[in-house]
Amino acid sequence: MGEAMMAETSMESAYPNASKSATSIVLLVGLWCLVSPWVYGSYLLPDAWNFRIIGSVIIVLALVRLSTANLKRTQWVSLTNCLLAIWLCVSPWCGNTKATPIGW
Average model confidence (pLDDT) for the chain? Predict the structure, then answer.
């Protein structure tokens, strides 16, 4: 019986508080992405929209993940957040503007 329970236990079901803590950190990162153009005074630059949109999406996804009791149903949120993080790292070089990338 112990082996059957061990096979069904995943990392997220064994440590739901760790998943919620990580999602809370992701929520803070989303808030920072949303607010950072105003903090650095670059909110009028053409590339600032990217940080506002991505930050808003990250916030919404984190709130969805935090409000769900069954974390297995929202595992796709983690993958989506990883893709958004990659985009935030790559986007300053993908733009067609001549403005200095925000944060660099």
Answer: 79
Q: Residue 6: its pLDDT value, please?
A: 43
Name the residue ranges covered by the structural domains of the chain: 16-94
Which sign does the torsion angle of CA 58, 64, 69, 71 carry? Answer: negative
pLDDT at 5: 44
Q: pLDDT tens digit string along 29-39? A: 999 999 999 99
What does the block give as tokens for 83?
A: 């893709």
Q: What angle do CA 102, 81, 15 make, to 5 degrees?
A: 130
b/e string for 40-69 if b means 16 or more Cβ within 10 A? eebeebebbebbbebbebbbebbeebbeee
Q: Is residue 35 a contact partner of residue 58, using CB atoms and an 8 Å limit? A: no
Tokens of 92: 């300053």
